[in-house]
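Let us practice reading a record.
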Amino acid sequence: MNPSLHWLCTTWILLLAWLVILVPSVEAAEPAFRPEVLHQMEAAVLKQIAATNLPGGVLWLEHGGSSFHKAFGRRSVWPVTEVMTEDTIFDAASLTKVLATTPSVMCLVESGRVSLDDPIERYFPEFLAARSNHITLRLMLTHTSGLPPGIELASHWAGYEAGIEKACGVKLATIPGTKFTYSDVNFILLGELVRRVSGYSLDEYSRRRIYQPLGMTDTGFRPDSELRGRVAPTERVGDSVFRGVVHDPTSRAMGGVAGHAGLFTTASDVARFCRMMLQKGSLDGHVIFKPATVDLMTGVQTPPGVTARRGLGWDIDSPYAGLRGAHFPLGSYGHTGWTGTSLWIDPYSQTFVVLLSNRNHPSEEGTTGGLRSQLSTLAAEALTDVDFSRFTNALPVLPQDPVLQPSRVRRSN
């Protein structure tokens, strides 16, 4: 061998030997999810699609910075067939309550413009049933205000102002603070509260204060014609389907912007919101809430003696909380929507699971109730680095942030 070549080879061998000695070995990082459980989640969704319980959907699971997301089935089955895509925009239904109305109200609370213990008649003097009954914003946000589930539609009223008038005209169903009754009326009025206090309609306020800073570019009310092609249709009525028009009849009568329903969004946008919640109010340098505000929203806020445990807007442990599954601990939180949408967030394991679907397309016969619970159970079982037995008593009693106490709140109505 050429002496120069021999010397060069020897030098490289010695250099590689020194690198092996000096550079510490790096083990491959353990995957965040068990592949076999992810396959079970996929199979669970596909089974329900095959049973025509939903035409399709988008699943998003995220834990500790790792995510698994996938589109399944079809976006539309009538009048034409369209494949489901991950960027499909869904009618969020009652997810509006926690993705739009609750965070908007809490922005006003945090800025000192309203207090959670303000009586609602301070903002709605025309609300006769609220007088002398001490209905507070906190009771409305926890569905313990005593207001009925909804407002009547039989008289075929129409228009946003007519809807607010109807909401202010309801009679109490129960004594405020004594019983949990899930009520759209609470959030119809809270959405109007945002307008009366901020000067912006709910859709505009939530866009400016929440969605734009978070980069939720496909989230909003009344999607325009450019977005409508990606919107998943819902129920068929006669020769057409609702597409880009809210399915909820009360919100639709009010023009599509209401505090209880009307928001449209994508799975990736919901994931950004959930990520912000897990990071205690901040995402990518944008601060939406103080950490104490997130704790306040997601801690138990229902009055003593009420067995259903709710946060401000958020469900924790109520008859609607079956989507928590078998493993996520008490103290995690989430919400569902009539159209087949749901999200559940577990701050203890830093995990969230989102399912967006249009289960009521082309008819109301579809269902996602059992699937939601199954997916949450499997989502927890998919995590490779969490022992949920540690969280058997994970529901904290959270003190309120003194900044948000009624006596310390600055009002500028």
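A brief commentary: The chain is about 35% helix and 15% strand.
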